[in-house]
Amino acid sequence: MPIIDHIGIAVNSIREAAPLYAAMLGQETSGFEEVNTEQVRVAFFGKGAGRIELLEATDPGSPVARFIDRQGPGLHHVCLRVPDLESALERAVEAGATLIEPGMRPGAHGTRVAFLHPRSTGGVLLELRESDPTAETQAASE
Predict the structure, then answer these.
(1) How confident is the model at residue 20 (pLDDT cuts 50, 70, 90)?
(2) Is the distance from CB of 24 to CB of 35 less than 8 angstroms?
(3) Nearest-CA neighbor of 142 among 8, 48, 14?
(4) Which of these, 5, 53, 47, 63, lies nearest to 33 by C-alpha position?
């Protein structure tokens, strides 16, 4: 069953935005990571389902940089955790969703992800993230 894995928020600077989110959420970020395939630096708050992800572009031509240029910082995407990414993508495409190329790719924390275009999902950029049963078990026990 898919659940909300995280909410992605595009920011101009993670270093500037992180202290505000840390204060609001009462916790520090889990650290910073660069996701080269997406040309972003990310920081997560929380564990398990419902995390907050801050995204900072590392290249002015990246999708996140273009998003901020068009709309300014703010809500970028909703990520749904799915048990089998390939099956979830097949079902989504059969239902009329448009896959953003290159399709499945490496995401943060070494997981596989894919994005569905907002034009086909009611105006929301959806990220599908394949669940990692090992990581899920560890996170549940923390």
Answers:
(1) very high
(2) no
(3) 48
(4) 53
